Amino acid sequence: MIYNIPYLVVVGLILIGLFAVMFKRNLIKIVIGVTLIESGVNLFLITLGFRKDGVAPIFTGLPEGVNYPADMALPVPQALTLTSIVIGVAVLALMLSMIIHLYRHHNTLDVSKIRRLKE
Amino acid sequence: MSILDTFVAHAPALIVAIPLLGAFLVQLVGRLHEKAKVVFALLTILLTNCFLYLLTYDVFTNGIRTYIFGNADLTLPVVRILFEVDAMSIYMALISTTLILVAFIFSWVYMKDNTGLDKFYTLMLLLTAGMLGMVFTGDIFNFFVFLEITGISSAALVAFWVHKAEAVEAGFKYILISAIGALFVLFAIALLYGQYDALNIAVLAQSIQFTFLDKIALVILLVSLAMKAGLFPMHMWLPDSYSRAPAPVTIGLVAATLASFYGVLRVIFSLYGGIYSGTDLALLSTLTSTKFMGSLLIGLALLAILVGVIMALRQTDLKRLIAFAAVAEIGYMFLGIGTWMAAKTVHVDPDGIATAISILPYGNLALQGGIFHLFNDAFDIGLLFLVAGVIFFVTKERSLDNLSGLARHMKATTIFFIIGLCAVAGLPPLNGFASKLLLYESTFQLNPILGIVAIVGSILLLAVFVKVFYAAFMGPDLIKTNVHKEPRSMIIAMGILAAVIIIIGLFPDLFLTHFVEPATDALLNFSSYTNAVLIGGV
Amino acid sequence: MSDAGMSKIVRTIASVSFPFVLIYGLYIIAHGHLTPGGGFQGGAVVASGCAMILIAYGSSWILTKTKEHHISLLEHAGALGFIGLAFLGLLLGGVFFANFIIGEPILFGSAPALGSTLADINTGGVLPLMNFAVGLKVIAGLFSIILVMAYASGHKEGIQ
Amino acid sequence: MFTFETGSGFWNPLVWIIIFVVAFLIGYILRSFGKRSYKEGTEQTKSFLSGNEEYDKEHMQIKSSNLYWGFTESFSWLYSILKKLHTGNASDYIVWFVVVLGLFLLAGVML
Is residue B47 part of a domain? Predict the structure, then answer.
């Protein structure tokens, strides 16, 4: 049961993030929502690589009495998470800089007022 | 091994790497001379095209080609990052590189008064690399990475005219949609990875069991990629961002949208190909859900066609109008896939026991029509967006209400617009008709209503563009100031697209047998895709 | 984030702790092929140190010391280094991204010993070089993002 | 080479082009039957609007928003719905995504 808690947290994070994106009006909060979804997905990936009593997947730093691949945490999900974090930083930076420009043009951060493109 | 063989062997990696290298070199080259950037970007994309043509010849004669990064032999198929290029990838890559080439030619004069042009070309080349990576990769996580590269660079390009409030708004909408879609794609990838410990599409496809989690992953992948491809009712970002981007960027966006559509195809036909294109009796239990999803796709596609054309009919902003027409065109493509998914039948013997599952022949026809239409959509909509770009460049007017009598000044543009109009509305003898004919006839056999809606959509599309033609090109000469001839580079760019449209319109059969059918077969032939990786296809 | 910078205490603390942040980040980059970490993580650490300086001293002060396009030049150098190494792999090793240095009698050339050994930094082939390239790119990229954002948002009246 | 089989039918662009050429020829022949006494710049070229004065060309142009007025007017109920759907609010786009996701989850997973 205790090992399922991360998965519940993952679902919770993604749902909270989606809620923020859908129903919050402040642009910054929407971006926070996107980041929450991203954290949820990253947590999910990391949790998939978990092994009970596993050690860090450093080949040269293996302690005595530990089997080579079997007792290590999976390194692939960590690599995936890292890649996703890097991409997340780029997306976050781009979104925030667009928000700066949006604020300059519209003088508001309310997403429901920034809708010149409609119909 | 001759030098040409070496080139072909490394072509899959080079086709993605050359635009990537060019993207960063443009900044350095741009310091030399004002025009050096665009010349360099053009050279880069031409070199990519050369390698692509070599690879095209090879793939169409010798079959699937794989490329493994870092090491020549495929020792650890699960860990190694690899590219897998089949006829469908080539088909998509040809569309993307041609559109980007045209966009670069078009931008020669169109973008000349802008500052920060080196960043423009960097982003355009990154967009190209991302799209080509998406269509070439054989690894689902890499697909996500390239999807994000495409999304980020195109969002930045949509907001390129940062001093315009609408452009930034469109860019923000695009990056929001793109980020959420890509994150859900990553979530689905994690679901698959957690079950099968693999990221390679071929390995995953071989081992997928269609469990509960697999179904969730399938739905998430399908819906997120369909959103990025602009399926109704998730199409709303599309008119917003298409209409506010600079014209060369819009062409790139058309290609990027189609790359997402390619993702949908890859998910259905390769990743879940064992379930969807399999005719094993063991799949009987999955038949209800697959057929029902097909019907749902058909429903959304029909709504997309109708809503796209009906909304286009009342638009006054020219580029926004064309973007709504693009929504309808995307509906046609999804109609092809949906019909294929729903066109499965179970043969039952007199005792009521199922004996066989088969895909009805019109299903494959509908798929061919959809894939043919992919090409036509890219070129027809691309041509119309270029015409809109020329009109905006010459008159600085967006609204059709303020345009009139342009045919008096811009004869070449008028002719290209008529070609684009006829092609997009599916008027014979241009290419749009050939693909739509395939779709009409095949969907009619599934349900007559589908065919009828498709035809009605085409007729309304014609009405939409006749309105544009009447309003912008005919009538008295209202715009007296500022109207001059269209620059030659723009005529060349439009001419390339128009020439392709006419040639394919005249020889639809040649194109169908030499490009569309191999691409469709590559999608349908699920086992050859997986075997190319699993049984040492190098 | 005001333009003027913060109080003298903050500035002094930032100046004192900056070298440590820098060293730690560079360590993570340099040991990327041996321990968890690498170009991006180390680069992010260094860039956060730079952000600390930026907050303490203000963006205008930073812009008197360096220009944004110099930083972006560094960024492109990093990107070009990475993709250039991949192309060198194609030229020298036969495959894109091939590890052409490993096994050669030059820096980083020796193959790592099997089993649980002490970490030897002189291994890894092109991996450390790629880590350096990525590190350069990330430091320059993140720093220029933060710098531009601070400068842009600092010059709008009425932002609290 | 030109003929294009679609399973239940075929299509040949050459036939269509020949029809175009024939139609053009017929039109040209009909035109050649026209009066030869037509002169430009005389009363003959003026349009006849039941004796009313003709407006300037600039005022005769129908704006594009007024084209298809009958169609848009009779479908105004549909347009009011469609306009309401496309709110332009970025959050609503994500709401649509979640709605479609739920729809497909119902279809694909529950069945």
Answer: no
Task: Count other Cβ atoms within 10 Å, centred on residue C7.
Answer: 9
Test the A interface: residue of B149, B168, B200 with most A CBs within 10 Å: B168
- Tell me the HSE value of B312 on the side-chain side, using a 13 A CA sphere: 33
How many structural domains are present in chain D? 1
Per-residue pLDDT tens digits for A54-68: 777 776 666 777 776
Q: Which residues of B touch D7 (CB under 8 A)?
A: 361-362, 365, 441-442
Number of domains in chain B: 1
Q: What is the CATH number of the domain that holds A98?
A: 1.10.287
**Residue A95: domain span:** 2-53+68-106
Q: Which of D70, D86, D71, D67 minimizes the C-alpha distance to B465?
A: D67
Residue A29 belongs to some domain of the structure? yes
Q: Does residue A98 lie within any of the structural domains? A: yes
Q: Is the pLDDT of residue C94 over 80?
A: no
Assess if residue D26 is contained within a domain: yes
Query: How many Å apart are CA B472 and CA B476, to the nearest integer?
Result: 10
B413: closest CA of chain D, how far (Å): 19
Q: Do C149 and A86 touch (CB under 8 A)?
A: no
Longest dimension (CA), chain C: 61
Per the CB < 8 Å rule, is C152 touching A58?
no
pLDDT for res B443: 87
Cα distances (angstroms) measured from residue C11 to each of B258, C47, D46: 52, 17, 85
Per DSSP, the three-state class of B159 is coil
* Residue B269 belongs to a domain: no
| Residue B237 in domain | no
- ∠ at Cα B90 (B89, B92), nearest 5°? 65
With respect to residue B107, please indicate whether it lies within any of the assigned structural domains: no
Q: What's the Rg (C-alpha) of chain A?
A: 20
pTM higher than the cut 0.90: yes
pLDDT of residue A117: 79
Q: What is the pLDDT of residue A29?
A: 92
Which tokens belong to C46? 């260094």
Distances (CA, A) of B447 to B226, B371, B441: 23, 20, 10
B187 in A contact zone (CB under 8 Å)? yes
Whether the Cβ atoms of residue B175 and residue B149 lie closer than 8 Å to each other: no
Chain C contact present for B71, CB below 8 A: yes
pLDDT in tens, B13-30: 889 989 998 988 888 888
Is residue D67, in this structure, part of any structural domain at all? no
B43-47, B354-358, C96-100 — most confident range? B43-47
* Average model confidence (pLDDT) across chain D: 82
Nearest CA in chain C to A60: C116
Tens place of pLDDT per residue across chain A (119 aa): 788 888 999 999 999 999 999 998 899 999 999 999 999 999 999 888 887 777 777 766 667 777 767 777 788 888 888 889 989 989 999 999 999 888 888 888 888 888 887 77
Q: Which two tokens stand for residue D78?
A: 């549909």
Within a domain: A78: yes
Reported ipTM: the value is 0.91
Please state, rounded to an integer, the average pLDDT across all residues of chain C. Answer: 82
Neighbouring C-beta atoms of residue C61, cutoff 10 Å: 15
φ, ψ dihedrals at D40, nearest 5°: -80, 150
In a domain? residue A61 = no
E strand intervals along B108-225 = none
Among C128, C8, C18, C130, residue whose Cα is nearest residue C57: C8
- Kindly state whether residue D19 falls inside one of the protein's structural domains: yes
Q: Do chains D and B touch (3 or more CB pairs under 8 A)?
A: yes
pLDDT category of residue B474 using cuts at 50, 70 and 90: confident
* Domain carrying residue D12: 1-34
| Residue D18 falls inside a structural domain | yes
Residue B287 has a pLDDT of 80
Q: Which of B127, B90, B91 is nearest to B8 (CA)?
A: B90
